[in-house]
Amino acid sequence: MNAPARTPATGVVRREQLSDEVAARLRVEIMTGAVRPDTFIRLDETAARLGVSITPVREALRTLRGEGMVELEPHRGHRVMPLSRTDIEDIFWLQSTIAQELSATAARRITDDQIDELALVNAQLAAAVADHDPARIASTEFEFHRVFNRAAGRMKLAWFLLHATRYLPPQLFATDETWGRSAVASHEAFIEALRSHDVDTVVELTKGQFTDGLARLLDWLEKVGLWS
Predict the structure, then answer these.
(1) What is the pTM assigned to this prediction?
(2) I need a surface site. Which of 64, 86, 99, 105 has the fewest CB within 10 A?
(3) What CATH number labels 10-80?
């Protein structure tokens, strides 16, 4: 007799997705200073605020503890760890270094069809910026870089970059109209350089995107008084 087919553990998958979503939300709040260093993140309060049960919050905090973003203090809860300028600079340095390596490879290997796809996505980004739609801006910007990084064919390196960019607060950039217009213009120059396989220009433009992002985030954290 054949063994009965096993059904997917959809409940477990959904719980893991919720945990990832909660971790992403808390990570952005910490990175943007919305949740300050030495603040205690309470399970019940956070679950109620985010509209989830305590379980995904607990799992999300375990993830953030592994990243050194929170620390568990017995009988008190999870305390947000200090975030220095050097921490921010190190995060962007890592992202930029990996992205430049991917860019150099992609600039040599990318096809005309892939470049055309990038141009289409950038047009969609321009439309999202014109419509003042932060959610669409963030998702389209992510798609632009996903298409480009895929062209490099270095999937493990792209995976490391994806995990490093978890520390970028996309909504902070997406709600900044000057950033949106700058991103579209930068992508246009990027695409032009790709059409001529100008590796040096592609790498320099990639570096510039992270330099600009770092400056904007540091400026924001200064404004909200994270280090005052």
Answers:
(1) 0.88
(2) 86
(3) 1.10.10.10
